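// run 5 | inverse folding | seed 20
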């Protein structure tokens, strides 16, 4: 199918689902999903935005702004992953426990408010990555219209641009816990270190990057076209990161890439 056909199929899927709750993060995928759900279903859509320790405040505010711009009703729910030892022990199935917690909350909201289905922004490319959260989605009965319509990440960006969504070229984002290697316990202190370090880089104008937490070492993954700028600011960045508690600050020579913490799992 071409992009127009996929978009048409997405509309068909959404209409079949009826009254829906959208698990909304403010990212590229879920923003397109929310936009199209609103077009097809109107007032039969409610966006739920999860506020948690692993979700930066800048992302929470961006999600609220996007939802307001779309004219969609939304609610904020608080999720506390750091109280769940199955999550904080940070094994390779960490995301499963996070998604079980989130989707269970959304399921309760749906039942209490007469919503028929819950949908999320999983896309066709996601099935090729290691994503234990997909198991939770299947167990709880969450639908993924973008995936069902065979929309890839690039399709979603193109369609978002066509629809005039400001999110079309928004950098990819994943929860802050993904910055901590599997097997290293997730703590509030580590999450705060990563959040503050990444906020500092955002404030310096960098666009697509990750700060990976390796105990005393902060490993920065950044797009190659921004590496020289980062090196020019190396002293300023080092000083800030040491204040945050890191002893060493390194630059990953391969640059930014999604799922780098999963590489050893795929071997």
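// decoded
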């Amino acid at each position: 199918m071409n992009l127009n056909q996929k978009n048409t199929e997405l509309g068909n899927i959404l209409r079949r689902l009826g009254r829906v709750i959208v698990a909304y993060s403010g990212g590229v995928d879920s923003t397109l999903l929310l936009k199209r759900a609103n077009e097809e279903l109107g007032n039969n859509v409610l966006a739920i935005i999860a506020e948690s320790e692993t979700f930066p405040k800048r992302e929470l505010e961006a999600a609220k702004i996007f939802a307001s711009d779309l004219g969609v009703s939304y609610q904020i729910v608080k999720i506390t992953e750091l109280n769940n030892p199955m999550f904080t022990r940070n094994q390779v199935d960490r995301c499963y426990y996070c998604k079980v917690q989130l989707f269970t909350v959304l399921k309760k909201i749906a039942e209490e408010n007469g919503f028929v289905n819950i949908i999320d922004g999983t896309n066709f490319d996601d099935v090729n990555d290691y994503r234990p959260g997909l198991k939770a989605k299947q167990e709880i009965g969450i639908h993924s219209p973008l995936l069902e319509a065979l929309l890839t990440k690039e399709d979603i960006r193109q369609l978002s641009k066509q629809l005039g969504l400001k999110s079309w070229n928004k950098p990819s984002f994943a929860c802050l816990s993904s910055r901590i290697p599997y097997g290293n316990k997730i703590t509030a202190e580590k999450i705060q270190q990563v959040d503050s370090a990444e906020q500092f880089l955002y404030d310096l104008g960098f666009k697509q990057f990750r700060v990976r937490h390796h105990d005393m070492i902060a490993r920065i993954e950044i797009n190659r076209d921004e590496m020289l700028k980062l090196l020019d600011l190396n002293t300023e960045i080092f000083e800030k990161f040491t204040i945050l508690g890191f002893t060493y600050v390194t630059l990953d020579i391969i640059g930014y890439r999604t799922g780098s913490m999963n590489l050893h799992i795929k071997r």
